[in-house]
Amino acid sequence: MTDEVPGPLVAAGEILNMLNVSRSRFRAIALHPNFPRPFQTLSVGSVWLRSDVEAYIREHRRPKPAADEDEQG
Known about the structure:
Blueprint: E1 9-11, H1 12-19, H2 23-31, E2 40-42, E3 45-49, H3 50-60, H4 67-70
Antiparallel strand pairs: 1-3, 2-3
């Protein structure tokens, strides 16, 4: 197989960490029409282009508050 991969790939485990969500929450997010389609589906599961997932996070996820914004003192 000589297909070139256009960048780094990530699987569900990496995406869980990128989104900071549980496995069940990730499954729900992955079904949403805005979430990128897998680059490829292998026998062990799907893989996505890291750049596609990062773009999704920038466009569709709220940024986490800064540490001092959490503390209302």
